[in-house]
Design goal:
2 copies of one chain form a homodimer.
Chain A (H helix, E strand, L loop, with lengths): L13 H15 L6 H7 L4 H4 L6 H15 L9 H18 L3 H7 L5 H16 L4 H24 L7 H18 L1 H11 L8 H19 L1
The structure holds a DNA duplex.
Chain lengths: 221, 221
DNA sequence: ACTGCTTCCGTACTAAGTACGATGCCTGAT
DNA sequence: ATCAGGCATCGTACTTAGTACGGAAGCAGT
């Protein structure tokens, strides 16, 4: 069993298929992730994977579940705000590693065990703080909306973060028709985005704290 | 020219292809949206579409751009907070009509004219309010993160909103192993989600106002 | 009616998911 | 040591999807 090269070890199993799929998706994206390419990356053959997973959807579901497994749950020995903040920062890091994850979530409606466990932990964090259920519900929905939404925006940014081609794209765009047709966009780009030191990601913690402030205020009422 | 049935009118053009694609995607989702099915829906043939669009990616890009065109820009005769709120509510409605839109955005990096125009209008709303550029940047990033993220979550909810199958899914899940393994999730579901009158969507305006509060506070500093 | 353009579409090639059945290695019993 | 059974692996092939290519069909202007 096993294979000749590429994949390091012996027998394939579900776990190995899924982690391989995640690594491949990180490299080439989910759109271009195919069973054949995945099999190649694992040093295996397409049909072999089907002994360990039901079908491609099963792989996709499993990938999402493993992504949730990567997110640190909120620590239980901290006040809820601190704990929730930590898990959000962790979530953001994970989603940055796997930019395909949030969009994929839209189509997967059956949550896996790690996903459920993670949600359970977050709800536990909020519930044990004594917040009323209605506030817990709002808090979770709002905080995750922000985290997921920020992740989507970061994912759709050109470039991996280097900024070179990003500047090029924006530069070209600006030079063309943008200045006349889209004056605000042009000014914003020139006066802010193109300035040294600008980093879209800086808005994350600003927004997160702002959201947590709001939740806290909600809890007070 | 034209065709025998289905599609209403005569000659095909880019616009008709794109709106047809959007309608089809609303019905069957983007995943299952194929050139062949789209051609069928338009009463045409696969290859015919290629005289009006470059390829499938071009269709996808065009769909996203039309979605942005559907979102009402912030009214210019209102204070920024009111104006921004209105455009966010509009955006949320549009993204609810087109649940596939946000996930699709992740993979499209070339914005179309309507997209640029919309962004320009929102930036104009914030800039004309006299907010400093840094605040404008944070505000836009944070507000849109929330709007997009909320849309993704709503899209991944089971059921279209009827709630029947939603309850079934959750009910089954709860009944199984959930109560022991995921006590917080179980309690949350039983005590809150399953209660009559619960609507996930209610968190949107709560969150939106909370975010806008935060932005306002940011602007004050 | 003829030329040429625009629009359309029939055919066919390639990539991708995956059903089916065969092959070959490993284990435990003789 | 040999052999039967089982399981992981894979070769083949069918189906669906994107799309290149070249031809046909309707219309304008001469």
């Amino acid at each position: 069993m096993g294979q000749q090269e590429a994949g390091r070890t012996v027998t394939l199993n579900r776990e190995r298929v899924l982690t391989g799929a995640i690594e491949l998706a990180d490299e080439i994206g989910v759109e271009t992730l195919t069973i054949r390419r995945l099999a190649d990356a694992l040093g295996s053959k397409p049909m072999t994977l089907y002994s360990h997973v039901a079908n491609k959807d099963d792989i996709l579901d499993g990938m999402i579940d493993l992504v949730f497994a990567e997110i640190d749950p909120p620590p239980t020995d901290q006040p809820w705000r601190v704990a929730l903040r930590q898990r959000c920062v962790s979530a953001r890091q994970v989603l940055r590693r796997h930019p395909w994850a949030v969009p994929l979530m839209e189509s997967r409606t059956v949550p896996g065990p790690h996903t459920l466990g993670h949600h359970d932990a977050v709800l536990g964090c909020l519930r044990s703080a004594g917040l009323p259920m209605a506030v817990v519900a709002h808090a979770y929905a709002i905080v995750d909306a922000f985290v997921y939404g920020f992740a989507v925006q970061e994912a759709s940014l050109p470039g991996g973060g280097a900024g070179d081609e990003f500047d090029d794209v924006i530069g070209d765009m600006t030079a063309q028709l943008a200045v006349d047709a889209f004056p605000n966009l042009a000014a914003f780009t020139a006066e802010h985005v193109m300035q040294p030191g600008y980093d879209f990601g800086d808005s994350f913690e600003v927004g997160l704290d702002l959201v947590l402030d709001g939740i806290e205020r909600l809890a007070g009422a």
